Amino acid sequence: MSADTQTSLSPELETRRAAMALLANAPEETLKAAWDALDTPPAHTVIRQPETGLVMVRGRAGGTGAPFNLCEATVTRCVVALDTGETGFGQSLGRSKAKALYSAIFDALLQTKDWSEYVETHVLQPLNTATQAAEHQTREEVAATKVDFFTMVRGD
Amino acid sequence: MTTAPLGLTKAPAPGLANPVHDAQCIFKAAMNALARPGTLQTLHVTNLTAPHPLPRTMAALALALLDYDTPVYLDTPLAKSRDVVDYLRFHTGAPVVDMQADAAFALISTPEKMPPLSGFNVGTDEYPDRSTTLIMAAETLTNEAGPLLSGPGIKTTTQLNAAPLAPGFWHQMSANQTLYPLGVDVLFASVDQIAGLPRSTTISLKEA
């Protein structure tokens, strides 16, 4: 997980990056429910079994300073291949192996013609809506407790 | 809208089904093979699919032993196979090197055409452990004929016969023993068994 996100990607890769970010942030229950809702689950092989490890999180002071090592974070990753050949990658914070597996499968399905629309409308869009609602709520709660500090001019 | 695949055009073959447990079993077999030179250790890896021309037992040993810290040398048939190189790189992260002397591990799929043992890294006097461990394919691996082995880990003597081998292999291995504590170690891998031949084992070429 590099701090450099300056590289320009093709629109398809940008879409995929956004989708993977949504999947990584999604709650495990939502992904499990979406998977269980599939009538005919697509056949797949797990190439890299879900495994938990550490990644170094790097930061830049003020967003522009020299990068420094901020902390290590627990990450679980997984790779699957569909029987039709597409390879999907799943990575998420935390130790949930099931979540990494579901993320990887949905990432692979997004690359197929047959499934991409279904996943887009039934998995990604609801996730997107939920994420935005949660963010909106947080912003509102924060805004409600906003305090303005000002200093009276003393003396004179 | 479908999203684009990354650089990976074809998925590599799956790795170990149960990475922690399987790798520990394989490691234990390799450890026992080197601790008791010449004994045949059975590997239970029938569910592993390895890309051609990498034999399954060799693939299992590679998955258990290699990581990003261990440069690996591949013999010509393996190095030429894109599938094998991708498979090893994806699952182990080990850098593939061209120079035998740089390798911590060497995978030899055709021992009859292998380069001389003297080309591999024998370690240094300060760090004899920084030597190459060769993992060699064997079609047959028996204790029935072959040179007499003796030394640490062998109660009296034992015999080990692997085929096919390069014509001068046993002589080279015998010369390797004289370098002790330097030298290379060898693991033979047949279809379902492995056997070890560490640098400490004395090889007597007169067959019993």
UniProtKB/TrEMBL annotation, chain A:
InterPro entries assigned to the protein according to its UniProt record, in alphabetical order: Phosphonate_metab_PhnG
Keywords, alphabetical: Lyase
Gene Ontology BP annotations: organic phosphonate metabolic process; organic phosphonate transport
Gene Ontology molecular function, alphabetical: lyase activity
Keyword Lyase: yes
Protein name (Swiss-Prot/TrEMBL): Phosphonate C-P lyase system protein PhnG
Species this chain originates from: Pseudovibrio exalbescens
From TrEMBL, chain B:
Keywords: Lyase
Pfam families, per the entry: PhnH
GO biological process terms held by the UniProt record: organic phosphonate metabolic process
A GO term, aspect molecular function: lyase activity
Protein name as catalogued: Carbon-phosphorus lyase subunit PhnH
